[in-house]
Amino acid sequence: MMLSRRRARTVVLLACGLLALGILPGHAIETASLNLGTLEGEGWSAQAVTLELELLDAAHVRLQLQAQAVMLPADHGRLGGLRLECAMAQLTPEWLECTDGSLSLQSGVLGRQQLAVTFRYRFSDGRIDASLSNVRILGGRLALTASYAATGWQLHLSGIDLLLQQASAQLAAAGYAVPQLEGSGRAGLTARLDGTGAALQRAELQLKLQVESFTNADGSLAGEDLDVVVDGRLKPVVQGWYLDLDVSANRGGLYAEPLFIAVPSSPLQVQAQLLWDARQRRVELQHFDYRHPGSVRLQGSGQFSPAAADPLRALQLKVVEGVFPALYETYLQPWLTDTALGYLETAGQLSGQLRVHDGALSELQFALQDVSLLDQGQRFGLARATGQVNWSGNGKAQRSDLAWESGSLYRVALGPARIAVESRQRSVQLLETAQIPVLDGTLQIDAFDLEYGSDTALHWQVDGLLTPVSMTELSRALGWPEFAGKLSGVIPSVRYQDGDLEVGGILLVRVFDGEVTLRNVRLEQPLGVVPRLQLDARANNIDLELLTRAFSFGRIEGRLEGRIDGLEMESWRPVAFDAAFATPGDDRSRHRISQKAVDNISSIGGGGVGGAVSRSFLRFLEDFPYDRLGIRCRLENGICAMGGVAPAANGYYLVKGRFLPPRLDVVGYADRVDWDSLIAQILAVTGQQDVVVE
Fold it and tell me: Within a 13 Å sphere around the CA of 496, how many CA atoms are in the beta-carbon half?
């Protein structure tokens, strides 16, 4: 037999009526036992239901209700072995009330439960008001208060000391798809649910979490010492659900790969209003407000399609406030670790907004206020930058302006400057000539063009001019011995593509009363971990007296010319080249070399001093004439193949003396020399002890 809730109520009324007749004169009915079969309502059903009533006196009955199984609404599971008992229920013509009942049941999720229960059943409309206490769940206790009537139902929940380490397993057992988490902590819960039949009309929830620690299976999500309060309000709307959410974190740290967020002394707060469109299977983030005091405040809205390959469909994000260094260290650096911007010291503030349309970035606007960036490896820096950065993906030109008070590039100081550019969908161009002070000179940028493809690879080209820069200032900045002279050059084409930088023009260095030209300059990954430099160099008419004076090498008079072909440097250390330097064939200047210089050259070449004059005689002379001098080195695999200006017996001339006495020759005998050892010898004889060869 299957009874609806209305028919079951009629049967209960009949049973109570029969008991009432038992108290009238001439009647002896004291008990009523009814087999109600199957009861059902909207979304639920109860099987093998029996009811037993025993009259105790004119106003009280003993009640026992049993059901073999109860199927809960919305696939929330099954209850078995349900038994409700009330030793003394109050019976009136209007209602049946129990204040000290007990309820036992078996749940696949909650296990065996023995609960204290109170209830009141009103005969006129079938309204039931009930409360349960001491529900054992997640290692804690849960209390429920419920009302059920034809017009709707209400449910109030209150839970304390709920163990989070049991939550994943019990929710999974209840049929909910939840991520598997390991950890420990406690939760408190209060909730109110309103509905009609099997339909939920409104839900309000507050969850207080005190998490000692937690992590998921792959470690991409973790937390520690968290104190979090979640307030949520849920209600159905056409084709979906609306959720109003408030989250406040008061302490602790959260890791969501690759971000680690440490909760500051002021609470971290999130407010959001979301709409779930079941028909479109889409989440509409109508508004959110994210506040991380001392770091960032974000506001915006968006659309997400969780099942799509690219879930983010639309986003309007406003950066109300961004404060460095917290903004960089918490939210930017984790995404930039493997880039040139991965390790910066930062300061200043940032604000702006961005838009995403159809899964792609469509608009970007940011304002910088006194922003400073300093690479911890001292490769570059920018101090107190201010300006506006604008970009649009619709092809419409956008102007951006940026100014800074100072900067640096590999410890070379840059002065204050201002640049203006125009950006389009996939390109950026310089709007006007930019003047950037470099030490005591100027880098003039006449043109700049940048393009990037859908793969985000950057390609840019710049034309400009470097006005003379003091080599003295440059050598000081780089920690070199002080050089006299100037560095300048026309830069008709500097190109950057696929991580490589090429200089198309010629850089001219006027130094030591001569000239050094640099050609075929190519720099791979200039701001990477292992930059790689390639170039060819030519030296003309170098004054050796000025050169040797700068390096404390020992005085040499004369001129020098030379070449370096195929220079390759990794992390600014030479790994390959073919170099030769020697006295020019047409040099008519005075050729003299000091005793100290002779000793140093002899030490470097692994050679000796030859000639007709004894060593004991030479030591009384301060300097000596020479005909030619020079050195060759072809570096490969850490070994330098050595040579000089001319072959000699069993070696090569590093210094070749004049024909007339006193003649002095310096002969090198080492054909192959370890490069690091050679550099160490040069540093030792020049007194550059502060340079370390690794």
Answer: 16
